[in-house]
Amino acid sequence: MPKWFQNQMMRAFLEKDRYQVKMLNQCWFFYLKKSS
């Protein structure tokens, strides 16, 4: 997982930003699927 992505996730979690966490998760899974 890229460092910038981890930072985004941490910030979203700390701010309890559920929408952002969900969106980042979807982006990440999409990225994993595409790269494999």
TrEMBL record:
A Pfam match: spore_CmpA
Official protein name in the record: Cortex morphogenetic protein CmpA
InterPro entries in the record: CmpA
